[in-house]
Amino acid sequence: MESQRGLRRLPGQRGEPRDVGLRGRRGVSAAAFRPRLVYVYDALCPWCYAFTPVVQALVRHYGDRFDHEVISGGMVRGDQVREIGGEEEARELRESYRSITSLTGAQFGEAFFNNVATRRRRLDSEPPAIALAAFRMIAPERSQLDLAHALLRENFWEGGDPTSEAFYRAIAEKLGLDPEAFLDAMGTDEARDLALYDFSLARQLGADAFPRLYLQTAEDYLYLVSRGYSAFDDVQRIIDEIGV
Fold first, then answer.
1. C-alpha to C-alpha distance for 213 and 151, rounded to whole angstroms
2. Which of the chain's termini has less CB crowding within 10 Å, N or C?
3. Is the pLDDT of residue 17 over 70?
4. Which CATH class is domain 33-82+123-242?
């Protein structure tokens, strides 16, 4: 986990896929551009589990002043995809996550640790990233934070397996989505392509660890307002200093 308490202006992000957050917004004039919070997270990231409620609170606080968007970071991909499980690994995770709880107050569910201890699971960031892409496809009017929060909670509190169909069926039901429509959307090439595009956007932003929160103030201009976990008051202060 990294901390960020100052402002950093990122270089202009032009061209594909550098223009983060511009899905469907080509040709928007500078005068019409609406600032937005751009949240780069990963559904397998325990610090993101702690930080997502902070981002949700920021969105509520700023209301209509900002749009917001969630980008899947791709924390576990390629040769990093692996299986975990067993009592020793569960003990190590419990010990490691105590520092997150101590700093942030986030509580991890006993079901999570119990399921790690008693069954094997595969760590792979692609399935939940595909789920976020599918959510955008079938519920474009909904906040992407709803889905990100649900993915994280189903993993780190309920102890679900993010590579299983049951995991996404449960999330769809909790969010009031049609489970079959959600799973069908997840099975499309379009959803996978959008997930891979997210990973590319995250790399272009320099988000090599998670979470990251940016404030986009123009089509090609962003501020990094949180590198890693930050408390609400700290991020609010940084955003207010930008003066959008």
1. 18
2. C
3. no
4. alpha beta
